[in-house]
Fold DUF4360 domain-containing protein.
Amino acid sequence: MRYAAAIISTLPLLSFSSPLPQGAPSGHEVEITGITYGGTGCPDKTVQGLLSDDRTTIALSFDAYTVQSGPSIPATERRKFCQLQLKIKKPSGFQYSIFGADYRGYASLEKGVTGTTQSTYYFSGEQNQTVIPTSFTGPMEGNYLKHDEIDAGSTVWSPCGEPGILNIKSEVRIVPMAATGLNLLTVDTVDAKFTQKYFVQWQKCDPKKGGNGGGGSGGLRPPTFDDGNLGREVDLSGRPIQN
């Protein structure tokens, strides 16, 4: 089975879409304090993590994020999803926006079959969300790269005056279900980095007023396991990774 990894960092860096405010938080003021997960693409005991010494970068590994279709393959194997919840500590008086991510994987699709990957970004307790879908149409055989870049007009901001829980929900599926041959779509790596240019932006806010929730696609975000806690905590007790 394919192995998947994710690297997530919270070092604030200048966004191309807005100037960095004076006194923006440094990497020492922003840290990941925990992460929970859940979903058919990341069932219990299939996610491991390593945290850097300064608690700003986390590397996650998955071993069950593959969908497939074909004769004798159950319908449950044609769609999977994984939701991550990052608990992030940040200074009072600042908000940060959803960044972006790179998803790498492998697709083996016959003619007439479509593989889709979709990512949804939002903060717990907020209505705004950003949804980015990508499709691959067969015949296709080889690796793929899905790059999510959030437009300034679709920015979703973290709550002001609260730590905030960042949700990243990804989904992969194959359609139609009645495929005659063997089809495969995997998520091998997910690189969601705050450290790369335009992946994050900061703005000052007033905790007393609650700040600005930002843009997003509008409407309520999709149902989740539990906005407070997905129930499966990533074990971060392994050897620290290097930034």
Observations:
- Residues 4-229 form one domain.
- Residues 52 and 242 are 6 Å apart (CA to CA).
